[in-house]
Amino acid sequence: MTKFHQPIDAAEVPRFAGLSTFMRLPAVATAAGLDIALIGIPWDGGTTNRAGARHGPREVRNMSSLMRSAHHASGVAPFEIANIADVGDLSVNPIDVMDGIARIEAGMAAIVATGALPLAVGGDHLTTLPSLRAVSKGPRGGGKPLGMIHFDAHSDTNDTYFGGNRFTHGTPFRRAIEEGVLDPKRVVQIGIRGSVYEPGEHDWAKAQGIRIIYMEEFVARGPAAVIAEALQIVGQDPTYITFDIDSIDPSMAPGTGTPEIGGFTTREAQQMLRLLGPVNIAGADVVEVAPPFDVGGMTALAGATVMFELMCVMATQVDQRRDG
Ligand SMILES: [Mn+2]
Question: What is the Å distance from ligand 1's center to 168 Cα?
Answer without folding.
Answer: 10
